[in-house]
């Protein structure tokens, strides 16, 4: 019974709760039991809020009993990336420096999930401050990829993607600064969407790089992602950069998947050296599939994409060096060395030394340097110019095509530890995802098969213009349906049982 | 306190030409903070007016206060500045415990207002134009209280207390271009500029600009160059000079100190200076060797501010009359000298006098009461004039009673005293205290006769032609009537009784 519950999609679960076939409490308990059973191995969660989840579930059941109309995701459990503040529930951002901090307020995303009666099971593991592509940078230990627990689940949102792939939750929330939703989705065979920048409120989402960070939905199906997208998106007066416009019709698009008559772009710069053969093979097959489904494929040249990684590694560290300055041991979180003799400055320095991990320090130092007087124009200034060029490349591309497709990440999940000491190799995991963050438009990753050489999932990335997020779902739903038909079942069915 | 070598002021000015730059921070009187909805009310319990945003909690985000932007535009327009069509906030990065995010949200190379001027009038009426470089928006920091040290400074303190109620209160920083050519009048210009700016801010209604409350704070940057030299000398930055008198004294002290250093062959260190109210001196603070690097970059959490042109023009059309223009108009209307007008301004009496005239008093009477009895009381009780518990309408009523002959000046002072003591409005005080001019001729005549009979020697002197001696008898009558007689009438009666021509 409980095994059949955890394999349901979010849409199916919500329908069964609404019809009375299942109660929200049953659904929540099934997932809590699953977490209990497998999370010791997977380590997707940093904190499980058993009581809070059950209380939410009981409230949903009470609403139904009282004859109230339930929302489209009422009673569906969700795993929340530990970067969103949750009132009364620890929020660590995967860092020691926030160990023990209990936020006094809910992020807008948290609040909207609660308002939608989505049951929040707990907080998921992540690379510290969302800096990383493997979740190995978490101060609380790595997360395993449910396809192979010795491999990384992607990052920074590895906890969220692993929770989905391990059937610990049908829905999860991630954040994507350079690929942290899409790359984990790709390597775990799940679906992840980075909405248009400004599409989902950043209020209460601990900042890494303010101009790039974007929260978004993670799920096992395109429709589930759309339902979640709709629940969390929309203008928020507390976030000045949130877009004051109607949310694109993502659910409608996901229910009406089609690529017939669409123009699909393939960017020359998204292939070549460093791409795993099996990844390229599955990608090429996906392009073929799109053609077969009625799309026209157009070859595109976006020369400035080659500069994206360099620009990203100036902009993101610059903003993070400033965003992370507030962690000074004065008001919250970790405080080390306050023995009554040391000055505030010394306590701040000792705490930051002990509280931040190597990758965070690397980026804070990099960003501090890039913003220094005398270097600003050469580094931060030039990076912003590259950003403009990338945006123009996209604009020109979208004059010719409706969406762009690419591999989400150049390789499948690599073994834990393989790239831990090689930051450059790690950074390359985000080669295909970063241009979208720099330009602020929308993108999705969904499974397109297993790489023949290692049997691990490969992700297909779909990129749409800003505020055309619905196109991702329209194309994604069509591709997903065709693949499932071809495979005879969803890809995750092929994952080993834990 | 260290003794600083000073050169006599005149000697300093004989050899050197001072160049000043004034930076004034004004706390806006908005109801809420610059980037969140917390109250800006002063005097609340420490840290009671805070939220995730002004505490800089992880995940919090700023939202610009529209009234703050409007106030900034108004100030810019009143200072004859250009108003930016598009500008951004910037982060000024530095660590300090009273700054919750360890960066201040400010403006850097894109201020909302730039290139303006303010004409200031010196005591003798000369008008000096101070060029404005920029006015930009930013947020205030929290407040540190250092405990356990001798001086209240961080040095020697055992611990510090932090109050974030002030963190995020909107500030406008107004920066002048280098003020050249003021010569020996530089300190006076500095003071007049800050005074004029304060009047302007108050007239705009964007802040109460009370310097004693820290709502307006001034940094005085000053350098000297040998007379005839074009390039500027090294400057010192005297921080937090928080009264008009102090601005003048700080500039004067720095001129004398710089001259002493330079004339003895020394070099001025570029540093901040602390100003000391007690003796008007300054002492060294932090060295500013330009190594300080705030790593400014555009604030990515805020969208650019782009004031629509029509809106800016609308604000321009609603600007009040500039204080200096208004003062000159009133001065002419009231028929007073430049000097008297300056005193009225310094006493903060312009507003009360205008209101009293509007309530029906004539200008001379309104001025007399506010600059006399009331100014004295305000001084003695350490309150601003406008803080006295008497309204312009009440002052106008007193003036009316005097004009109608119901009160003389002495009685009127008692009425005012009664009003200030909370005994009620002027008519109530007159009633309760029985303060009416005695106009009953019979009673007066009796009192006069008694005074003459009681002072025969004086009466004889008067009869002998010493009319001036009548004053003593007037005094006796006034005493007998408890001051309620009309002194002029009493004198007439005395002279008549004694058969002397007045």
TrEMBL record, chain A:
Active site: residue positions: 81 (charge relay system), 156 (charge relay system), 180 (acyl-ester intermediate)
Substrates-to-products reaction catalysed: L-glutamyl-tRNA(Gln) + L-glutamine + ATP + H2O = L-glutaminyl-tRNA(Gln) + L-glutamate + ADP + phosphate + H(+)
One CC-aspect GO term: glutamyl-tRNA(Gln) amidotransferase complex
InterPro entries the record matches: Amidase, Amidase_CS, Amidase_dom, AS_sf, GatA
Pfam families, per the entry: Amidase
GO terms classed as biological process: translation
Domain of life: Bacteria
GO molecular-function terms, A-Z: ATP binding; glutaminyl-tRNA synthase (glutamine-hydrolyzing) activity; transferase activity
Keyword entries, A-Z: ATP-binding, Ligase, Nucleotide-binding, Protein biosynthesis, Transferase
Domain Amidase: 26-472
EC number in record: 6.3.5.7
Assembly mode: Heterotrimer of A, B and C subunits.
Family: Belongs to the amidase family. GatA subfamily.
Role this protein plays: Allows the formation of correctly charged Gln-tRNA(Gln) through the transamidation of misacylated Glu-tRNA(Gln) in organisms which lack glutaminyl-tRNA synthetase. The reaction takes place in the presence of glutamine and ATP through an activated gamma-phospho-Glu-tRNA(Gln).
Protein name: Glutamyl-tRNA(Gln) amidotransferase subunit A
Name of the encoding gene: gatA
Automatic annotation (TrEMBL), chain B:
Annotated InterPro entries: Asn/Gln-tRNA_amidoTrfase_suB/E (IPR017959), Asn/Gln-tRNA_Trfase_suB/E_cat (IPR006075), Asn/Gln_amidotransferase (IPR018027), Asn/Gln_tRNA_amidoTrase-B-like (IPR003789), GatB (IPR004413), GatB_Yqey_C_2 (IPR023168), Gln-tRNA_amidoTrfase_suB_CS (IPR017958), Gln_synth/guanido_kin_cat_dom (IPR014746)
UniProt-listed SMART domains: GatB_Yqey
Membrane-crossing segments per the record: none
EC number: 6.3.5.-
Catalytic activity annotation: L-aspartyl-tRNA(Asn) + L-glutamine + ATP + H2O = L-asparaginyl-tRNA(Asn) + L-glutamate + ADP + phosphate + 2 H(+); L-glutamyl-tRNA(Gln) + L-glutamine + ATP + H2O = L-glutaminyl-tRNA(Gln) + L-glutamate + ADP + phosphate + H(+)
Domain Asn/Gln amidotransferase: 351-498
One Pfam family this sequence matches: GatB_N
Highest taxon, organism lineage: Bacteria
Subunit: Heterotrimer of A, B and C subunits.
Record NCBIfam families: gatB (TIGR00133), PRK05477.1-2 (NF004012), PRK05477.1-3 (NF004013), PRK05477.1-4 (NF004014)
Family under the similarity heading: Belongs to the GatB/GatE family. GatB subfamily.
Name this protein carries in UniProt: Aspartyl/glutamyl-tRNA(Asn/Gln) amidotransferase subunit B
Protein's organism: Streptomyces albidoflavus
Gene of this entry: gatB
